[in-house]
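Sequence in, structure out. First:
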Amino acid sequence: MLMHMRSVTLRALSVFPSAAGRRASLVPCCAAKKSTAVTRTSNRVSKDVAEYWQQWLDQTVDKPTAARMLHRIDVHQVLGLPMAEEGAAESAWAEQGAAAAEGEPAPQRGPAAKGGRGKGGRGQRPPLYTFFHSVKKQHPKAVALVRVGEFYEGCGIDAVLLVQHAGLNPMGQGGPPRAGCPRVNLRQTVNDLVRVGLSVVVCEEVPEAYSWGSMRNKNKERFVAAVVTPANPHLLHGLLDDNQDLQIDAAAPLLAVVPQVGGYTVLEVSVDLQTVTVMEGLTEDAVYARLHEGGLAPPLFLHVPAASSSADRRLKESTFEREWEQRVAATFKSQIGAVERYSDPDWLQGLLTRVRVMLGLSADTHFTIIRASTRDRPRPLYFCTALNLGLHKARGQPCILDYMLPPASPLPVRNWIRRLLLLPPPPATAASVHRICSTLEGMRESLPVFPIVPAAGVVLKLRTGQANDIFFREVGELCRAILDLLSRGGEQMPVLASNLLDVACKEMGVGLTQDQLCSGLATSLERIHAVVDHDTQLLGGGSDWMPALDGCEQEVQEGLQKLITANEFPFRGKVRDEVMEKDNQAVAMARERVRRELDFAFLPLQQAHLEAAGAAKLRPSIIYDSANNALWIRIPKNSAALKAATELHHPHDRNGKIDSSCYASHGLQSALDDYRRACYEAAAAVRQHLRDLARELQAMQTELVCGATMSVAAAALDAHTREARRRKWSLPTLAHDTSYVPAAEAGTAPWEPQAQQHAQQHAQQQAQQHTAQQLALEPAPFEMVEFWPYWLDTWAHATVHNTLNLEGMALLTGPNMAGKSTILRSVCAVALLGACGLFAPAASATLPYFDAFMLRNFSSDSPLEGRSSFAVEMTEMRYVLEDLSPNSLVLVDELGKGTEVRAGAALAGALLEQLDAAGCRGIFATHLHSLLDLNLELDNTAMMMMETAPAQDSDEETLQQLIQGVGNEPGTPFAGSDNGGNGSGHTTARSKPTWRIVEGVSTESLALDVARRCRMPANVTDRAEQLYEQLVPMAASSSQDSGGSSSGSDSDSVAALAAQQAEGDLAAAGEARLEAGLAPRGRAARSGGRGRAAPRSASSSAASSPWTLAAAADSLQQVARDALANCAAETSGGARQQVQHDVQYVRQGQAPAPSVVGESCTYVLRRSDGHFYAGSTDSLYDRIRAHRQRTGKGGPGMELVFVSLGRSQGAAGLVKAVESGIIRELQRRGFPMLSATDARRRHVAGAGRSGSSVDSAPV
């Protein structure tokens, strides 16, 4: 065991580059005196390190307790201690000698600390000075936490930052700054430091062999156990012994930006997965979008070629392009605080070399290269587009993720969907996602419950060997769920499995076949179950492992239970008993000997006390000393039991000192020592078995990571499908060819860097050729039918549906608060969601291939970059023009508002001509009505406007509420209102917006009406109206002078068009909304995916019982058919024939298919204790979760069958009739029912007619 610990120590020290470094990492046993000059020179740090710590102290230290320590800090020294104290510390250390220097003082909290005379006081060196010094030399920009007994301590600058950011208290008074945290709080302390951007080096004591009852050796060796940084923020050391698993999400990646001739290359380094994603051909805006997206670890690496490495020379050329490097550095530095430039000719290998050095990795650490290009996939989402859709936090912008997923969705699920939207996938991957969603929508059989196991956690825990039994059980559940998915037959499950595998392989940059994945997961599951008992529900196996102590006196039994719990609970139940057979036998034999010796020592004392009839306070007792982990006997003074204690003596504690307050026999002390040693060796054996298992599973790491990625993707798309069906969103039709799948996705060897790189390059060439061929074909249609804002409910009365067919650009005009910005956001949402293969808020949609999604609105200024709002606006439009292609979607809102009206209109007109000539599709919304008077060359632009209608008195209150803040709720149209603008026309007629987009031109403004409804003071609005009346003749005169005479005709035509379109719109919208409400049900009926889960065999305990789940399923199906027949006889509804009435099973570890969301269901469940319960609900998924979360005999082992009776108005009453009928039938057949209350409802109101939806409560 000692040799093994020594090997572990050496492996942990491998972060040092040489043998000399490894020797320097240990505390030396002796030291030679050095001259003061040499010592002071070696203690100074570089200018870069000194500036780094000075910045941290100046910008972050504001707590009084931390600020009072600053006068004893010198950032130019290694530990941050003033030079005088450094020299005094060295002199004191040399004079005291090696033995005193290497002592292990306890944290000074007593009188010795107050006087400054103890170790670490004024004029003295801090504890472990030499070791601190060597660690800080190796890691000059990291906080060092060194294990000292039961504490982790830091000194100098590190102590100040511990007090400031981790909330610790200073240790000692008057001496060098010191601070520390208890051992149990280490992980929280490290998290506090890393969260603010600091790196931490954790140093541990070398584990000692088992020793008890002897004086401890004070000369301990220590080593660097972990280096934790913002890029690698997980402290896994010690996780193997924890009683709970650490949930590890993907760490923030490191980012590098490389300017090149063909655009910008962004390198994203995942330290957890050891991958580098290379994204080539990005634009400036795409780089800004990635920077503003956040979630990045410092520093940002900027590659500056050697020929142009001078940043000052770039600034002297005074162009925005040349200043780009400085602007990016300033932007990132304001968010993270660290920018590092490098100029290696090979920018990829140069970056990896710096990452390895920064993280303390070996020079040969392999990183997998994943290349992604914008030539065969849409461009990353532009920053302004992401901001308008709420993917970046912005005030008042509804986040699209909140409406795509159910509330309280797991964070990995939200992150996966968010990543998919920010980086729209290639057409082949989007087609796979589309097929997954389509399959889930029409699926009728139960799905596996997909566990969320982050791939980063799988890689890190297996690589470091810090994987405990809880982690292996989670991985076992993951393997079981994916194998269940891959092994299912039928028409739908294989489609779902193959497309999930395609998505996961594309995300990982590897190629795996289903056979390879199944083989790897099956092998992993077999090896996990061979070591870890997957049926154990509670850590330590609950109380089942506690041995029976029958025949013992009560006091002896209580003492033994405390001893056993303290020693055996930490390792019991973690691995199978058959794996630990020898160790468990040794522990049992030692435990039995302790019991015999304790009886032999204690029972005579108890008998003597009883015979003497002594007082209760004189009774001898057995105590468990937790500090010494021992059972001892305590005998009060004047007790009669003292006469019988002739064979007892005062025992030795764990440090070899005599404890005169207790008694024990030699046999008891020997038995306790054997028992402690057996438990120590058993715990070490458990750790070794878990390490060996982690080492074995590393061979299947690719398959496990692929399975984890598939599970997260499946859980995300399953949750999205359920929420989309609830919101009545539809799946758009992809009009472009999505059948192309790159060859690399099917045949690349897993995680083979060279083969993978060649295959990816070949696949990219094929994809580029395929994309070019598609572009040469006739443009696909872009049509959205009955779409609505994603933050509104389609069934809400205030929701307005629109239909739009874009063949090119559209110039959109309309008054304030009419919904122009809402239309743009809605169009962008439908297009983006459809391009990703997801559901969209529309009754139906047909989408072409888009290579970019550009949604920009009125911009604010950027003081950090030194730009006004108009400069930001022009820069963003330059990005649009640079990236423009016939396949781009361009949505521009309120361009030119940052300058005077005529110049803004001229620029807007020129830009609109460029968009029109490019052949792209989109909408150009504006309040600059003078655009209509310009002689623009627009061949592919249609005129659209936001409709208005005459306002009635009853509309005033509604409009008032919408504008004054009630509309800020997500359920009202004001949530997507416009930003206002420069209107050149105004009408005094009372009008109201209808929020519909129609053909035509609008010169209305309604600006003064909106101002009044926003409670602008009356004197302001009245004066504004007077001033406006002065501007109208001036505008008319200007129009006549320029030859424009279309204002009157435009007004007439607009009024005529508005009157013509106002007729019948409400009736048509009502019919369209009714059809949209029925459309999801119709698609589900046409999909033909009604599968029935094949019933599995019952357990052996229930095989001989007539009360099986299959028997209950037969009864449920018969009752449902009888109820449907009776309903058909009473009603004449034709829709009743499409009701799904075949029973479906939901087994343990499964969930109902998404297709039953919103349908009325009757179910029968069977608990693990054999009892049955029947109920009905309109939300089966939530009802099953409620049943499984209940305590008692149900829980995760519950299984059920259900029948769906559709979502029509009469279904709610029909399920109640079926529920009461099945309860009576099961009672008649003798089933053990938990409750039969609802059986009395023989005639249910609404069965066959419209009825209310009432859920029966779970039992």
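Second:
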Amino acid sequence: MSEAEEKKIAMEMERKLRNEEKAKEKEMKKQRALEKAKLGDVFKSSKPKTIAEKKIDKEEEEEFVDPETPLGERKKLSSQMPKQYKPSAVEKSWYEYWETSEFFKADSTSSKPQFVIVLPPPNVTGALHIGHALTCAVQDTLIRWKRMSGFNALWVPGFDHAGIATQVVVEKHLSRETGMTRHDFGREEFLNHVWQWTESKSGTIKSQLRRMGSSLDWSRECFTMDEQRSKAVTEAFVRLYEEGLIYRDLRLVNWDCFLGTAISDREVEYIDIKERTTIKVPGYEKPVEFGLINSFAYPLERGGGEVVVATTRVETMFGDTAIAVHPDDARYKHLHGEFAVHPFNGRKLPIICDEILVDPNFGTGCVKITPAHDIHDFKVGKRHSLEFINVFTDDGRINANGGPEFIGMPRFAAREAVVEALRKKGLYRGEKNNEMRIGVCSRSNDVAEPMIKPQWYVSCSVMAKEALDVAANGEIQFIPNQYSAEWRRWLENICDWCISRQLWWGHRIPAWYATLEEDQLKEAGAYSDHWVVARNEEEAQKEAADKFAGKKLLELSQDPDVLDTWFSSGLFPLSVLGWPDETEDLKAFYPTSVLETGHDILFFWVARMVMLGMKVGGGDVPFRKVFLHPMIRDAHGRKMSKSLGNGIDPLEVINGVTLAGLHARLEEGNLDPKELVVAKEGQVKDFPNGIPECGADALRFALVSYTAQSDKINMDVLRVVGYRQWCNKLWNAVRFALMKLGEGYAPPVKTLSPETMPFSCQWILSVLNKAISKTVDSLNAFELSDAANTVYAWWQYQFCDVFIEAIKPYFAADNQSRIHAQDALWVCLETGLRLLHPFMPFITEELWQRLPSSQDCERKASIMICDYPSSIEKWTNEKVETEMDMVLGTVKTLRALRAAESLERRRNERLQAFALCENALTLGIVQSHELEIRTLANLSSFEVMLKGEDKGAQSGSAVVETVNENLKVYLKLDGAAINAEAEAEKIRNKIIEIQKQKEKLQKVMGVSGYEEKVPANIKEDNSRKLTKLIEELRSLNNQLFSETSMKL
């Protein structure tokens, strides 16, 4: 086809388009007039509508409303697409259809490559929070992508019994409801209440997961306390014990006096205190003072002298068993080997030398040693074989070691009493402010107390070395890689793991204590060598009979303690697949592919899974990659908490909630009245109008797009609202496209060949191809934010903003170009929806189901089981993309001119424009795409000329702008006054701006060592930038000369 013929077709299409638009406008005016007349008639007559009229209205309305869909069936869609996107309507019914159709189910016998993720089991303490929503959004994106990419994809759902957290929540609930404690109920009845709570809350969590579109294989659902997982826990404990990796020892632990249990380091949060501060502690009516250090004297055994020590926990002095000095401290050399005397019990305290603990320049240089209540003193006690004396009961009161004057006192009440008693004895030497850290239990808010207790421990050094080795040799990869250093830091400094918890809810420790007739002490646990470990009581009886052969066994009692929750969680990748049994799932799906979780539990969970998995799972790692996502904070960067009122329930974002609804959620919780007031104030500040309905798709997309934010996400609900609005734009773009395709449209069966298609169609397929490649590359690299932004950018800036507008002229004519435009449009819709589906499953399913399908091939039942897009080599066309860049640059410049203040009144008019090209190459490109420029810039005409060929076209009023060094565009303004000075001033300002950029770049390139130190690619890039800036300056100066010459 010749250039003249192409131009003739373009002009004909343009003419038909104008006629079509005029006809539409005329019809709309006519329709509005009729509606107005009808409305007037209604008001005049005041007659109610007839039954027939009401029936017609209802039928018209029903065209846009989805019919009711029976549960689990494919969603029944309305005959007409609603004009507005409504998340609750769009996201209805699809999940039940996917689940019933078993699209989520993996096949252990499949020959496809496996891709396996285990959902980090949420605690059954309550509902999921926004952090869980991030986990679901990321993992479901990965699993849907892999499923569509031909993998046998398995995503295993599970729930964690969360021993201490669940027990605390249920205890609070029962206390509030009945006024009774767990001890009032007794262990068995209390555990029945916990099971009821668990079943209720797990149901809530499952409904939340489904509402978020999580494509989990529910046929493999598990719970850390179910029969199979409990079997795995017992088996692991027994095997580790038999290998000598689990042992019982008397050691220092973090003790929660309020809950009466040991707690993990993970459950201790630290408060930094600068000076005297009061803190509310559970069980005490008035706040307790911290941030003080007390000094007092210990009298020497002989010589009548004294040594002064200082402590922040004076109540522990009943457990002091030595006083330490530095061996080189001249002040105390004469006291080496001497004794001080305890003022309350007369205990002799040896004065020992310890250069590791004691800093002679700090305080008095004398340190009281309490081995049973301080981690540093514990080590000193071990080094010097000191006595370990515990002075507290399990509920935090002074025990018999405190003497009759103090026995039974709560520890912080005893603190005041001891100070007063020291004063009376003349031994108190004063107090002063002291900067310190207080460890507080995250579950109870009690101040953690270091206490010596007999507990079960896992020996970790050998397993930690294996975990370090697999990370070093690449068997496990960390994403982002920065966490490799943290992995080494944790594991190189690992301590043995205390796995005993003094709770009722959890896996009972499979150890039994044998009480023998010959034992002098009949108390359970009195002798460390009387324990047997077994899988059940019957097996324990046999073990005890063998171990204590010839001795009379009086009683065999199981340890009342339970295991640390992290022990069962650490086995999760194995146990969810059926271990210790040799199941088909274990053979097919272990090791798993990716462990995705928050970076805050890298050690507490990830490291323990690797250590336990390798030890009991056959030596292989439990997963190949560890993908760690950021932690969510509120919009102000604060940690989310119930007490601040800034926590976000994902369903409140999905469904929307009023401010009153947010308040109601707080009132149903366990906050005390003061905390409730603060939390409500926080909600009023952050969500004054509540949260609008956003839908699951918008929430998921927002969360995934946030993942590029280092190690923290500042979550702003307004961003989710923005993506919900984008869903509406996507909805309307597809709605418009479907109208253009028409009812009788038949999609192409074969892959499109762009070379015969119009320029805009070639371009959209080329940039779609590029978007596909970049999205897949980003997903493979776990750069989910980049992948989401790539898909978004293609839909928003290329498909919606450019392509849909550019192809409108083709629909004005009934020829091959129209068919090409329709085919390209359909391929973009179908491919683009598949590209977007892992991120936004609901809206993409609904829109994809509305697309016309080919009659010659069977349509898949769901978009989620379609193939994920892959790039098609013949679609890529760099030349077309380069030319479209010039077209879009021209359009952008013309739009900027139109938006100028001087043209405010004519913004919506079709204006005339022309382009002035510096060379024949630019002339050829712009001329060949005159139709696209005219359409996208909304021009009535667009002439293209070579510089110097037609001066006459420049006559009359016009505004000018430079597109690039080879192209300027002019917007004609016949009859309009142009302020030449204002236009010249705009150019001068641009010259100043470009000059500054040029000077800044020249300064960078002129620094000492630039040529030697800067990489070649950066130097080349800077040189290109400088050349471009110089050319822009030259062009702007020429433009300024032209403007001032015209003025003269």
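Remark: The chain has 33 helices and 33 strands.
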